Amino acid sequence: MSNEKRFSPRTSNILLGASVIILIATVLVRYLTSAPHEAVLVAMAVGVFLFLLVAFDQPS
Fold it and tell me: Is the Cβ–Cβ distance between 44 and 23 less than 8 Å?
């Protein structure tokens, strides 16, 4: 039995949904507005971080 802490399924779903929404929104902002590229890249990095957080939390 492992003592590792894992996110609950509900938390994983919320984080996954948030990451997908952030990534879709940043792609739309990038191509539909004249927002600074640095701000878009920072937002994309947050989305990717959340996605990877959920991905690496899954049991093997």
Answer: yes
C-alpha distances out from residue 4 to 7, 21, 35, Å: 10, 28, 41
Q: pLDDT, tens digit, for every residue of 20-50?
A: 999 999 999 999 998 898 989 999 999 999 9
On whether the CB atoms of residues 47 and 23 are closer than 8 A, the answer is yes
The DSSP-derived string for the chain is: --------HHHHHHHHHHHHHHHHHHHHHHHHS---HHHHHHHHHHHHHHHHHHHTTS--
Euclidean distance between CA atoms 32 and 30, whole angstroms: 6
Contact 54, 16 (CB under 8 A): yes
User: Which residues touch 53 (CB under 8 Å, ≥6 apart)?
Assistant: 15
